[in-house]
Amino acid sequence: MERQTYSGVDDIERGASRDQPRSPISSLGEERPKITYQYVEEEKEDHDHGIDWQPGWRNQWPWVGFSGFMTIIIATAMAVAILGISNHKRVKDWPFEKYPVQPNVLLNIANQIQNLGLITMVAQGLAIAWWRKALRGSSLQTLHQNHAYSYSFYAIITSGRKFNVVALAALMTKFAVVDSTLFQKATKTVITQQTAYMNSSVTAWIATEWPQNSGGIPSKNDTANPIKTVDAAWASVIDAYSGKIANGKVHDLLGANASFFDCPYRQECSGFVKGIGFAFKCNTTTEDIDYGLQHLSQQGGVESSYPLWDLSFNTSWATTEKPYASVQLNMLYADTHRGEQAGSCPGFVTRRSCEIRPAMVEYPLTVMIPSEEELEGKNIVTHIKFYNQTGNADFGTELDSEQIDQLKVLEYRDLEERLGEVSTVGALTYVLNNLYSSNARLVFGEEWDIKVEGSQAQSIFFADSDSDDANRCYYDIDKDGRDDPAIALLRKVNTLSFVAGLYLNGAPTTDVSKRKAANMPSQTVLSSVTGIVEEYDTNFSYVAGALVATLATVLLVLPVYWGFWQLGRKVTLGPLEITQAFGAPIIAPDRYKNSHGDFDHILKEVGDRRVQYGQLRGAPPGQMGIAEPHNVQYPDTVVRVGSSHTRERAFGVGIGAVLGGITAGLVGGNAKS
């Protein structure tokens, strides 16, 4: 049969056989002697000699792939830095208080950059591997399959025994989801407590000056009880002292009647606040006793009475020698226990005498505020702690300082008040006596008994059980967890002074917006904030797993770069570049007929050429190709029986029938129901 020819096809054949390959490696993989050709001056001007082939590490270093590799390193370092820096940071103010961003968002950006670097690295590596394979000699099927790995995941998973390092490198672009998932899994939010994690300014409405000649109404004729009552301001202090104290903390009022503002919700604000208070100056003596043996030494039938507890307050008025009034505390308490000898109850009695002098003190303040919803619901209030109790005060603890529990006396507030005047110190004495004045005595008539007056003594001296012991002459008040009675009492005195600072000038009954106009004192306290916060927590096991996955991905991609130095020009997997390598005439440049340099140089010359895909003119029917627009025409629509298109259409009709049948069955079943 005579061979038919048509325009365009003969050109392809002639171009394909025009030149012999100059590769040092044959199509069968056998090495040929490397040829180094030196052009003479005349040949340099000949446009047919356009070869540019410069193999070697320095000339062919894969800068694009290397930039992808460095992008992976930088993006991975970014992800690790994000997870490391965000660990144990608060959700509401990381990385910036005004612009908080979740680590997952930043990790997603880092992962996208990492994936971009991986795709770049894999792309150049696959191109190098493909062209090296072609350089060494290969079958068209192998070249086609290696090229398909670069864009088809289906080609990779169906490669079977033909799976190679090229398919493995291409697969790594899909494997990147593993490290990105591990990085995302590495961070979470937890609820925890942070101590002193920030500063906050708290506004405190508390008095710093004791009012002089105020509160205590004097008696005209009763010198034993010089103060007969107190005014309304002190009455409000007593009400607050009785109803607003729990567990040693003051309960602040709600809303605009509160005394402390601006502490963040659900947090504790700790600092130091100035307020009215006291300075203590105490003397202590102790004496060993045994009331049981002392009673036995007396004559029978004689009634005996022994002091167990005595607590009272008196006013020490201002005089010429002492130009200030103060409260005098006199206290006695006995601690006894069962003796080894019958009828014996040994122990010791402690006597303390303290001057309580008005002063301005510094309170260690802690404002414990609940959530905004809890405050609005009025079920929970703000708690105010105003001391730092470092531990239990053992019996007999020395009182050699002016204050306890880390309160600090800043300066005295001397009130020159005398007997018969309206008196602030007299009001203090009156209130303290009504709250704590008490006594207890151990007596013996026909048997041992105890006489108690005042609530304070009743909470100290009590029976250990319901059974009555007529011979009991001891009361062990030094029990585990109980403080020295004098220390416990002075804590209550400090509580009274703190409450007086809040309530004495009427601030809690005045709306906060009107207090400044009423000249009520306030101060701003710089506090450290402690409380329950939501913070980020990084699981570094997941971070390690992500790093291992990233390292494995990079290591499995690197083999496709092997031998890059054997190539003499930059290469890609672009279809035009590959077509040009197969000698397609339509890609052949006019200037450099035998060019083997970078394809970008060729593309600058041939890039403006117009081409079109269709049926080649003059070719047998069905012969499709890409050529100049005047050499192709739009193909006729002809479907032959048994063609792939017919089979696909039949398959689609079958699938549609199956889906339609299932839908009809479901609809019919629902209708019957």
Automatic annotation (TrEMBL):
Residues 11-21 have a biased composition (Basic and acidic residues). Signal peptide: none annotated. Keywords: Membrane, Transmembrane, Transmembrane helix. The keyword Nucleotide-binding does not apply. Residues 1-28 are annotated as: Disordered. This is Uncharacterized protein. InterPro entries: DUF3176 (IPR021514). The chain crosses the membrane at residues 63-85, 105-131, 542-564, 650-671. PANTHER family: DEFECT AT LOW TEMPERATURE PROTEIN 1. It comes from Didymosphaeria variabile.
